[in-house]
Structures are given as C-alpha cells and as structure tokens.
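Lab notebook, bench 4. Still working through the backlog of constructs that have no structural model yet. Next entry is a single chain of 338 residues. Request: give me the structure tokens for it.
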Amino acid sequence: MKKVAENLLLQVLPSSGEPLFLRDISPEPFGRKAPSQPSSPGGAPTPGSREHSDIPKKARHYRAVFISDTHLGTRAARVDLLLDFLKSVSCDKLFLVGDIIDGWQLKRTWYWDTTHNDVIRRVLKMAKQGTEVIYIPGNHDEALRGFEGHNMAGVELVPDMVYEAANGKKYWVLHGDQFDGVVKYAKWLAHVGDRAYVMLLKLNTWVNWMRRKMGYSYWSLSKYLKQKVKNAVEYIGRFEEAVAGEARRRGVDGVICGHIHHAERRFFDGIDYMNDGDWVESCTALVEYDDGRFEILHWADEVAAREEKKNRGKGKGKKGRKEKAPKGPHAPAPVAAE
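Model written out:
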C-alpha cells in the first residue's frame, strides 16, 4: 500500500532534490510543461490565461468545506461533479476527511485519468491561493497515515483534529473507520465487501448511463438499495451512535466524519453528528457559513437544477423571439388599406 502512495506522489509531485513534502507543485498534470501564457505588463494573469480562468467568477464563499470518500482512482468516482463543485466554491479551510484516493483499488488495477488529476490540481491550486487544506486519511488511503505531521505541497496531513466553528462550538473531525468493526477486526472481510460494493457501483454507472440517454438526471442506485436494506440501515444507526458517544466522552460539541457514504445531520443527546457523505453515490459536501451555520449540499441535485434552468431559459428565448420581416428587393410589396 505504501508503494501505491509513493507511486502516486511521484507522478503528481515534480522531481527535484528538495525533500518530498516541502516541494511546490507543478500546476500541470503529471509534470507536463504548460504552454506559456500571455501576461499583463504588471505581471498579473490576463483574462485568457490559465491562472485567471481557474478562479471562479461567482464562487460561493464558505468558512469551511468538508468532503470525503471521493475515491479517486476508481471509475465510480464522480470526478465530473466533484471538479464542478471545487470550481464553484471558495473557502478559508478545506477538510479532506479520508478516502480521497482509493489505494485499495489502485493496488488491484491502476486507473487514473486526466479528470482525476484535475481534481488534485484544483485542490493544490486552492492551497496555493490561501485556502488552508487539511487531509485526514481514511482506510482506503491508509498508506498516507504514516505521513501525518507532514505538509505535502501545501496540504497538511493529520490523523484527526478538533475544529472550532465560528459560533465557538468544537467539533471532532475524523474519517470514522475506527468505529467500523469490520474494518477494525476483520479487514479481509472489509476487502471482500469492497469488491462487492465496486460491482454495485459499476451497475450504478451503467444505470445512470441509460438515464442520461433518456434525458434523466443522476440517481444513485446503491444509495437507494442501502436505504431499503434493513441491515444497512441498522449498521448506519449503530455507527452514528458510536461516533457521537465517543465525541461526548471527549467533551466536544459535535463530530464531523465520513466513511459510511451517508450524508446526514443528527443530534444524539446534545451531540451534533454530521456526516459529509461521499462522491460516488450521493455527491455531497458539508459547508460552514461565516456565522457558524452548517449545511449539507447535494451537488448532483444542484447541477440538475442548474441545467433545467438553463434549458428553460433556452426554450423561452426561442419562444419569445419574433421573426424579422425580410428587407431588400425580396421584401413583399406593401398592400394598400381598403
């Protein structure tokens, strides 16, 4: 697993004699040299340059953004929606709450296309522009757990942390696999379950390909089945109670985690439990506003609403457009009033 992490880091990070985690990052994928861009006399990027185009014009700003379980390195990862989200927001702090890179799948079969690399580049670009990026490794990217305390191209790796929100409340932030009995005590079974889950996600991809052909928006089959299966619902409930119980023992006001691919906010005897979901099924993120309010964003729904609004606007434009009368020699002769 360590070799997988090292191989990925070697491809993303440029080669130089500097220490691995103190290097700057090349903004181009896998070290390809970018074509020179024109710049203004003062050295600032011009509107047509890459530096300017990477900055969202109407980005929503949040105090903090929490995402997890993106599973980069798998075909099931919704990198299209994830990249759209990252380009649509700005934030003071970005928390990557585990399972960002799927080392389990990369170890079996290497899969890493340019869009996956664009997501990494976008995160590093945010770090370079002043966003504080904190990476808390999970069980699928556990190879990075040996590197906590390091700063990787502006991304700080930590095992977990206590985050103080704008309203003064303290939240324990962790991935959450520590409370998964299967991962903790029967890792072989977790890997078997992971293979079955990958098959379900492949079916989910095929179903959504058919839906797109028929003009329907994204829908998660795996999420639907998870909500219908009684054992899955009970497992989620037990997980949430266990995490909230440990948060209470630690004396914090709440907990923020991922791992179970189930975005939700609940209260357990005063403990605020928040799960930021995932980017293979629900495509969700947890955000904090400047006044300390938290909200779960369902990005697939937002993109679908945006497309519907755009299509409605196109329809209105065509309907409201008046036909212009032809002019010139081919124009019809005026008819005298009777």
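Notes after review: Residues 10-55, 182-194, 334-338 have pLDDT under 50 and may be disordered. DSSP finds ten helices and twelve strands in the chain. Flag for follow-up if needed.
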